[in-house]
Amino acid sequence: MTRLDNVVAHLAHPPLPTPTHRRGSTLPPHRLPHLPGQVAIPERARTPGPSALERFNHAPADTARQALLTCLRSLRWAHRLTDHRPYPDLDALLAASDEAAYDLTAADLAEALAGETLPALPPDTYGVAHTALNAAHAAYEARFGHVFVISLNASRPDELLDRALEAIRSRLANDPEEERAVVAEELRHLARERLTSHLRGAGNCAIP
Questions:
Q1: Which of 24, 133, 140, 187 is the most exposed place for a label (fewest CB within 10 A)?
Q2: Domains recognised in the chain with CATH numbers
Q3: Do the beta carbons of residue 197 and residue 204 sit within 8 Å?
Q4: Which long-range contacts (CB under 8 A, 24 or more apart) does 101-107 make?
């Protein structure tokens, strides 16, 4: 090959440039996480226990009645609610409670009233207020022969004393028959409130 042929070949196929530095990897190597010999498996979700209503529905009859008596101390009322179990929901139980309360006789009401106490006042209520309430209650009991009961569930704590005193003084004007009807209604409300409070989680009606 002549020198001219070499020049032509060089122009047609120029040599690749010699790299001036070594090219490294542009991406980091893929690293698999360390896998231990045993892999932790999440615990199975805890199965919720029976609700308060379910426990009431399936409790022995004597146990259910004793629990109900902490809500309203009437054997007739407690027997009725126990005998009509099971209840599908709280509304059904409250409807049965109302129906049983409406059927209470004068003797049943007296029995229920014997298990009631004065409405609780806030712990910071001053002494004069307790004295006023005790005096009003003494007048009420002297007239009607039983403890004064009232549902104060809808009242704010700072209104409890005023509402109780106002109600006692107002109801002192009732004749015994009128007051018995008021008492029956208040007891019905109290029974509903206590049942509801417990079955929704924080009541004093001790259904096991």
A1: 24
A2: 52-199 (1.10.3330.10)
A3: yes
A4: 101/72, 101/77, 101/184, 101/187, 101/188, 101/191, 102/184, 102/188, 103/76, 104/74, 104/76, 104/77, 104/184, 104/187, 105/76, 106/180
Structure tokens given for 25: 């990897």
- The tokens describing 93, both together, are 């139980």
Cβ atoms 56, 192 nearer than 8 A: no
Give 49-84 pLDDT, tens digit per residue: 688 999 999 999 999 999 999 999 999 999 999 999
Largest CA distance in the chain: 142
Judge whether 162 and 64 are in contact, CB under 8 Å: no
- Average pLDDT, integer, range 131-144: 93
Q: Is 205 buried (19+), middle (13-18) or exposed (0-12) by CB count in 10 A?
A: buried
Tokens at 144, concatenated:
């009607």
Q: Rg of the chain over CA atoms, in angstroms? A: 40
